[in-house]
Amino acid sequence: MLQPQAPETSNSVLERHYEETAHRREKFVRITLADRSMQTVFQPIVDLRTGGTVGAEALARFTAPPFRAPDLWFAEAAELGLGTELEVSALRSALEQLSMLPAGLYLSINASPATIVSPEFRASMAEIPAERVVLELTEHTGVDDYHLFGEAIAEMRSNGLRLAVDDAGAGFSSFRHILNLRPDIIKLDIALTRGIDTDPARRALGSAMLAFGLDAYNASIVAEGIETQSELSTLQGLGCHYGQGYYLGRPAQMSVLPRQLSKPGAIPSPGVRSPLLHSHGTLTPELPELDELEEQAEIARSH
Fold it and tell me: Looking at domain 38-302, what is its CATH homologous superfamily?
């Protein structure tokens, strides 16, 4: 005689739903890893004193569904235990194109502390000219052991690798990174840069960060997310020497990046608008698919 099945409890239903959702999430990440449906684009980093391009930051763009911001892809991969694998895949894609970057320019790559101390990261960097690479430590992930982390990159730094702390000013962990790791470059977060021309508090904090980085560590300061002439002029007036953002140059594929690199003289003195800069630093007509992806990601985040 068949025994009647006990009805599922709410907890068991939730557990099954979670397992099915986790399986789907892992499937998306593994498909991306398998078919490398991840595009690498490069955003120019510009000397705000001369207008010349000094480097380019490698940025991942995911072209497969679900359409969402790259940081959500990497965060989800980390939750699933695939964070290092996805990060290393993105790093290798960027490093494979280093030889195409014009001589004299550096390549800036992003990695979390867990990835930086991994054997996979060291293997990826083994044959790379370290003096042409800036390693950006993501601000959102803590460093469990600063001594161990420092040892992991000590040899690469001695060979010319420069260390950058990303998103400075966005959270307390960035200050801990700066104090413990003595970076060569400090990158001001877009939340600090955006509106710095109209917000006295942002200007004061930006000025303090500039003084702190230069006086305490002789570090180069890069302002991220510059989107207007007014923001640019304000940062120049504060003494910020380097910057990046849509106003200076949009992310572009390496095949077209050389056409977007600015030359010395492209950036005006504070308060003087230059039509050359904005038209020279924009690749919207050549890469419409990037804007479409960003719009799709914004729509996904709003739902």
Answer: EAL domain (3.20.20.450)
Residue type, position 278, single letter: H
Distance CA 283, CA 203 (A): 29
Over residues 117-153, the pLDDT tens digits come to 999 999 999 999 999 999 999 766 678 899 999 999 9
Per residue in 193-240, pLDDT (tens digit) is 999 999 999 999 999 999 988 888 899 999 999 999 999 999 999 999
Cβ count near 68 (within 10 Å): 17
Among the listed residues 225, 252, 222, the one whose alpha carbon sits nearest the alpha carbon of residue 100? 252
Q: Is residue 248 within 8 Å of 226, Cβ to Cβ? A: yes
Instruction: Please give the structure tokens belonging to residue 177.
Output: 């990174």
Give per-residue burial for 112-149: e unless 16+ CB within 10 Å, then b: bbbbbbbeebeebbeebebebbbbbbbbebebeeeeeb
How are beta strands 220-223 and 162-168 bridged, if at all? unpaired
CB-based contacts of 211: which residues, under 8 Å, 6+ apart? Answer: none
